[in-house]
Amino acid sequence: MIDFLASFFRAAPERAHPSLDTALRGPRLMLRMVKIEDWKAWRALREASRDKLEPWEPAWPSNALTYGYFCVLVRRYWREWRNGKTYAFSIFLLDGGDPVLIGGITLGNVHYAAAQKATVGYWIGQPYVCQGYMHEALTLVSTFAFTELKLQRLEASCLPNNEPSKAVLRRCGFEEEGFAREYLQINGKREDHLLWGKNKLANKA
Q1: Is 178 among the domain residues?
Q2: Number of domain units in the chain
Q3: What is the pLDDT of residues 33-45, one digit of tens each?
């Protein structure tokens, strides 16, 4: 049994180490690591979109829009990126001028060995919803996960009544796989979630 397990884990792909300067580019978007200099744009967008975002996210702490909170968040993301645990991207719209921050998308809980998977989470500012931007961003991140990180599976979850998120996941090739009661704490309350998955062979979105 020990010999079998040893050979099983040795068969896993070598862990990837993407640079902190990694940027993903699509027809309209550029995704890169969250940086401290994003704070003012991040704060303005989150503040303007608060009513839209809060129903779908964990409860915001009292200091959620402060510079100190953002610095702690970014440093954690840097540390987890270097450790290969989380890849947090800011999403920028390329409109011919300076790139405009419109949201964020994260590959978290990255596992290699037998699992070879990660969990996707994302948000987008109110002015940019329902314009296809998250489809493009999720497609870019899926390709990054499968080609650069050599993962075999992505997972996601959303509230049962979050129709925009369900539509994005379906369009990007995720399949609804299950239902979890009181799965995550959202806006101060444990909420049921739909569970979604996408395997590498299905990466055709």
Answers
A1: no
A2: 1
A3: 989 999 999 999 9
